[in-house]
Amino acid sequence: MDNRSVSHINIASLLFHFLISIYLTNALRCYQTGNFTTNSTYAKNRGLLLSSLASNVTANGGFYTATVGQGADEVYGLALCRADSSSEACSNCVNTTMIDLIEKCPNQKEAISWWAAGDNCIIRYANRSIFGRVEIDPPEIFYNTGDIKFNMEEFDQIWSNLMARLSTKASMGSSKVKFATREADLTPFQKIYALMQCTPDISQSNCNYCLGQAVVQYNNCCHGKQGGGVYTPSCIFRWDLYPFYNNSIADAPTPTPPVSISPHSTNNTISKDLDENSSTECPKFNFETIRLATNDFSYHNKLGQGGFGTVYKGVLSNGRVVAVKRLTRNSKQGRVDFKNEVMLVARLQHRNLVRLLGFCSERNERLLIYEYVPNSSLDRFIYDRDKRLLMDWNMRYKIIVGIARGILYLHEDSQLRIIHRDLKVSNILLDEKMNPKISDFGTARLFPIDQSEDATSKIVGTFGYMAPEYVFNGIVSVKSDVFSFGVLILEIITGQKSNKFRIGEEGEGDLITFAWDNWIGGTASNIIDPILIGAASTHDIVRCIQIGLLCLQDDAAKRPTMASVVLMLGSAVLCPCIVKTCIS
Q1: Domain named Protein kinase: which ranges (predicted)?
Q2: What is the CATH number of domain 140-250?
């Protein structure tokens, strides 16, 4: 790209910025759901509510909700400022928007205005409760009339990855702010800039859903345009080819939530022999505390066992229930895995990763203390003849999406880049609400943030889940985990093990081969667990099979990133076409 084309984009972007500011002044909806008279109680309550929003929003961090009145005259309202706006800009925007709403919606019982003054805020009121609810209608969609001048296939991949990563980052915010900005390199001279925000009263999953739908709405309307976005009542997203947000505020670090630990743990951090470079504090428990918590590692407290050792249920003196992984003694590999897991997992905070509370290294014992996850591992459900009946499609889909988000966090959104290397159903734990949590990081590989693959002479993991380039050539990358995730999808959909797959009365076969044969033959429904047939949308399940097969292509370069997978799972974005020749 030469300087003239860069200048052309900058001029076009500035013009768009000017036009979009004018356009957004009119981004206001007066709902036709009921009217009130000028001197009514509802009118007075609306005035009091809007005044309350304007006077309190900046003092409450840019988001404020309120109700005024009761019964049929009760008014609900909220004000939200864009998280990268200053207090002054926030206050000015809310005051201007309040006046605008009163003038343009003089007697409507419900109305909303998006970013009406300076692209900085939203105000909404209604005669019904609007708090904690995700609403995507009515949308306000806008775009730059200029067309993208780049290779569209390459642009779409970069753009989609950016949107998936951004929606995950924004939805993982707190109850006070759910906001994120991000850039992606389009060329050495040009970036894509994007911003997403949800009203922080909605849940993480609802925020992610809202943003995913906004991206779909934009694509359906404005694909190929040089910038734009979608505003809905619960979330907004905007992107452009120039920086339109305040980086100094937008990139402020999010505080790490505190870890609750046993009062018997010490303040010791990981010793130097564990990690020379770690600055992450991981509480060290004393052995006697854990011995008492597990009733001297009683058989009755045993939760499971594997090649790494045994896991026990424990109850600390403060009543907190924990899971204790007791690694096998006198194992050199066990010492390596222990060090690896403490170093890595202590730094990770995500709802779909099991949480490390501390460790113990005394008396030739190596113990890892985790949060207790009551429903054990996914294999205890998906492979069990009776428990599998409890797993309807909605539950299985939720588990698939949760695993995908956890892997995306490991690959792109944590402070580190981590390749798990042993993703399998027995390493997916389920909490009391059947939310999945990825566990067992003993064989995980830490990568520099700018490195995507490496070679190793030591193959670790579980056969049946390993990517071909890893098994045969020792190439480990983020795409190795993508392959394993593809196997997980098929196992969750079929309810069977990949390496012990039963094909009717014909005996055992290979799940991946069976899935590909049926996909090519147009009989993908043959892959679905029979208990799901008729009780769920076959179209939705087949769509997930397609995503799984995209992840299982032999050519690692053709597999999607986890960012693309999360985007495909969370929206109606069409999956790329796949054919058998993709995995020849």
Answers
A1: 297-574
A2: 3.30.430.20
